[in-house]
Amino acid sequence: MPMFLREFSSWMLRYRRTWKSTIVISVANPLLFLVAIGAGLGQLVDPSSLGGLTYLEFFAPGILAAAAMQNAYIEAAFVVHGSLRQDKSYLVAAATPLEPRDIMAGHMLFMAFRIGTSALAFAAVMAALGATRSPWAVLTVPAALLTGMAFAAPLAAWTVTVGRFGALNTVFRFVLMPMYLFSGTFFGIETLPDWLRPLAYVLPLWHGVDLCRTLSLGTATLLTSAIHVGYLAALTAGGVAVALVTYRRHIHV
Amino acid sequence: MLQNLEIRVPSAVPRWGGAHFLVFRNLRVHTGGNPWTMAMYSIFEPILYLLAIGVGIGQLVGDVEGVDVPYAAFVAPGLLATAVMNSALHETMEGAFVKFTQERFYQSILFTPVSLTGIVVGEVAWAVLRGFVTALGFLLVITVFGLVSWSNAVITAAGTLLVAFAFGSAGLAVTTRIRTWSDFQYVQLVLLPMFLFATTFYPVTVYPRPVQVIVETLPLYHAIQLLRGCALGQLGSGMIVSVVYLLVLGALGLVVARRQWARIMLH
Prior knowledge:
The complex is a heterodimer of chains A (about 250) and B (about 270). Chain A is mainly alpha-helical and about 250 residues long. In chain A, about 75% of the residues lie in helices and about 0% in strands. Chain B has about 270 residues and is mainly alpha-helical. Chain B has one domain. Helices cover about 70% and strands about 0% of the residues of chain B. Chain B contains 11 helices and no strands. In chain B, helix 4 (about 70-100) packs across helix 10 (about 220-230). The longest helix of chain B is centred in the N-terminal third of the chain and has 31 residues, at about 70-100. The radius of gyration of chain B is 20 Å and the shape is globular. In chain B, about 45% of the residues are buried. The interface of A and B includes residues 24, 25, 33 and 55 of A. Chain A: It is found in: Cell membrane; Membrane.
C-alpha cells in the first residue's frame, strides 16, 4: 500500500466515529437553504427576471458549489489546524515512516472524499426536487468536488503555517463569506455594478458556481467549461505544490 | 447549601445579588474590550446578507404581497432580529459554556458575595447589553441607507432590548443542559431552520395555513414581527402578542436557568 493511503485510511477510521456530527453542517445546512430560499423566496421571484428559470433551478446548483467551498473550509482550516496544533495527529504520523508529503496527500484525499460525498447527497436531492434541467447535471458532482478542492488545497497549504486560531475565522468572515454571497449564488453577477463585475470573474467560487449551473441547466459550452475547469484545476495544483513545501517545513521542524 | 452560603455572608451580599459586578467584569474581559469593535464584528455578516439578499434578490423580486416597501427594507428588520438573537445567544451559550467548563469562572464566583441569582441576572443583563450594541450598529447602518426612518429606528432600538432579553435568558436556560461542544450542533439544527423559515426573507403568507401555524410558534418569528412592525412604522395590536410572548420566554428562561444553576453548582 502506498504510504499516503495509510494516512487516508486512518482518517477514514476516525470518520466512522464522527460522521454523524458532520451531517448537520455539511448536508443539513445547504439543504435547509435550498428548501427555504429556493422554495419560499422562489415564490416571490418572477421567472421572467431569470430568463424563464424558476428560482430553485437557478439557485440550487449555485448553493451546491458554495456548499463544497464551505466543506472545504471546515476540513482544510479547522481540521488541519487541529491536526498540527491540538491533537497533533500530524506529528504522530510524522513519527512513523510517513513523510510530510504522504500526510498531506492522504489528508487531501480524505478531504476530497468528504466534499465529494456531500456533493453527491446534495445533487441527489436536487434531482429529486426537479431542480435540474439536463442529463449533464450528473457532472455537477465532479464539478463541485473540483470547486471544493480548489479551496481545500490552498487553504490547507496556508493553514499549516498559521499559529493563531483566530486567523482562520478572520479568513472565513472577511474572505469566504463575502465570496459566498457575491459569486452568483443568490443572484446573477450580471446585476452587479459595472466596476464590481470584473472582480467577480476572478473569484474562484464564481467559476465553480457557473460551471455547476451551466451543467445543471444544460447550457454549458465547451470553451467556458474548459476555462472554469482549467482555472479551478490550476488553483488545486498550485495549492498542492505549495502544500508540499509548507507541510515539510512545518511538520519536520 | 445555597441558604448556607447566603446566610454566611448576609451583610456582604449586594442589593441586586451582585449582578452588576458580572456585567462590569464581562465588559472588561470581553475580547477586543471596545464595544464598537464588538458591534463591527456582529454586524458585518448581517450587512453582507442585506446587500446580497436585500439588494441582489430585491432586483429579482417584484412586489411582495402585502408589503408596500422595497424588499431591502422588508428584509432588514428580519436580519436585525437575527443579529440581535445571535449576539445575545453567543454570550449565554458558548460564552457561558466556556466560563463554566474551561475557565471555571462561576465556580470561583461562588466564593464571592455575588449570589446565584446575581450570576444569572448578570449574565442575562450582559447578553442584553451585547445584543443592544449589535442592534445600534446595525440600525445606524440601515438608517443611513434610508431603509428605516430615524424616528422608527429609535422605537426599533427599544424593541431589540426585549429580543435580546428573551433569547439571552432562554439561551442560558438551555446551556444548563449542554454536556459537550458537540451538543451545540443540535442547537444549530434548531437555530438555522428558524433563521430560514421564521419570515426573515418573505412574509408568512407564502406558506400554506398549517405551516403558518408552526412558524407562528417560533420565538424568532415574534422577534421579527415586533422589530418589523417598529421599523416599518406599522404598529398594530397584533404586536402585543409578540411582546407578551418574548416577555414570557425571557422570564421563563430566567426562572429555569436560576433553578438549574442551583442544581448544577451547589450539589
